[in-house]
Amino acid sequence: MSFDAEPLGRCPECGTEIAPDFLLIEYESGGRPTRFAECPDCRDVVHPSAD
Ligand SMILES: [Zn+2]
């Protein structure tokens, strides 16, 4: 694999790092990119935090 699989961020619920594979949708809201991803740990749809 030659692409860079950078994590999307962390789950705000449990702190698990969310891999790009779990990205559900990405869109811009008021000029800011917003992402929804499924947390592999909680199995919940969350906004991954960049920190
Ligand atoms: Zn989680």
Shape: globular
Helicity, as a percent range: under 10%
Helical run tally: 0
The parts where pLDDT drops under 50 for at least 5 residues are none
Order of helices and strands: EEEEE
SS content category:
mainly beta
**What's the pLDDT, averaged over the residues?**
90
**Compute the gyration radius: what is it?**
11 Å
By DSSP, the count of extended strands is 5
Q: Cofactors and ligands present?
A: zinc ion
Largest sheet, strands/sense/barrel: 3 strands, antiparallel
How would you sum up this structure in a few lines?
The protein is an all-beta fold and 51 residues long. The chain has strands at 9-10, 17-18, 23-29, 32-38, 45-46. The chain starts with 8 loop residues before the first strand and ends in a 5-residue tail after the last strand.
Structure, explained:
This protein starts with 8 loop residues before the first strand and ends in a 5-residue tail after the last strand. A hairpin with a 6-residue loop joins β1 (9-10) and β2 (17-18). The chain has one domain (9-46). The mean pLDDT is 90. By secondary structure, it is mostly beta strands. Helices cover 0% and strands 39% of the residues. It has a 3-stranded antiparallel beta sheet with strand order 3-4-5, with no helix packed on it. The protein has a two-stranded antiparallel ribbon with strand order 1-2. The protein is built from no helices and 5 strands. Bound molecules: zinc ion. Zinc ion binds at residues 11, 13-14, 16, 39, 41-42.
Q: Keyphrases for this structure?
A:
single chain; binds zinc ion; about 50 residues; two-stranded antiparallel sheet; three-stranded antiparallel beta sheet; mainly beta
